[in-house]
Amino acid sequence: MTTIPTVDVHAHVLLPEVEALVAGLPGLAEARALDARRNGPAALAVNGPMVRERVPRMTDPRLRLAAMDAQGVDVQLVSPSPSHYHYWADEDTAEKVYRLANEATAAHCSAAPDRLRGLGLVPLQHPGRAVRALDHALEQGLAGVEISSHAPGRDLSDPDYEPFWSRARETGAVVFLHPFGCTLDERLDRWYLSNSVGQPVENAVALSHLIFSGVLDRHPGLKLIAAHGGGYLPTHIGRADHAWTTRSDAGAGCAHPPSSYLRRLYFDSLVHDPHVLRELVRVAGADRVLLGSDFPFDMGTEDPVGALRAARLPDTDFHAVRGGNASALLFTE
């Protein structure tokens, strides 16, 4: 089992080309103002220096590989920083954004194709372009795409996304669900609640939309990875099951108890608590949890393997999460 590569499925790349493309465009200032309100001034004061210190590791493949070596990580699945979503953009701009992001991510990963796999972007605000964006990502040699938990006015249960889910299933593309921004807005604008609470909330809401709406019934075999261990949903799935069992409105959209769908999804291991990680493995299955670090941000872990080891899983489960599951997902046709 020690020959299985260690694979980190939650690592980010920063794409200055994308930010240069959107600089000064109508809508950007408003989107940044919303992000500032959601985070609050104290968080923004910390975020600026934190990101600047990490830019080299997110842009220089040599520094990335050196950091991976130090962590004992053999392979990273690299996704664009969620700050590159730009779901405010009009259709023409959105097309330029996803094309440039896909191509730039592929170029970054080409520096070490045996160690770096990439994900592209999809303009969720324009569902009619989602399939085209996914196909473009795959044409660049990327493993799939990264999406947020929602777009303005749209949840992932929106029927307009059905062609996208169908195409992702048909191609075997990986879809990495990584929220950016929480619709609880200014209620979370202190103490970095925008991230520590907002991200798990958004993960739970997005996954609940996919489950309760029947998306996972209609598209079995979808390779969807939820960041941050799926947020609050896996540890509170009993409440969802109870609602599905006792209320006709809760049970109208999906065919099976919500907890059963956890074994159709994938989750990264980034939960920051060994007991929660053990519970995630219990409810989702050891074959559905993948190593994740959120490289190189401060809300991630510098030692993803050590964090996994702290959960004291059986050896077979440990090695499955360390890399066996991700290897099967990314490198098996």
UniProtKB/TrEMBL annotation:
Keywords: Lyase. Residues 7-330 form the Amidohydrolase-related domain. InterPro entries: ACMSD, Amidohydro-rel, Metal_Hydrolase. This is Amidohydrolase family protein. The lineage of its organism: Bacteria, Bacillati, Actinomycetota, Actinomycetes, Kitasatosporales. PANTHER family: 2-AMINO-3-CARBOXYLMUCONATE-6-SEMIALDEHYDE DECARBOXYLASE, ISO-OROTATE DECARBOXYLASE (EUROFUNG). It comes from Streptomyces eurythermus. It holds the Pfam family Amidohydro_2. Signal peptide: none annotated.
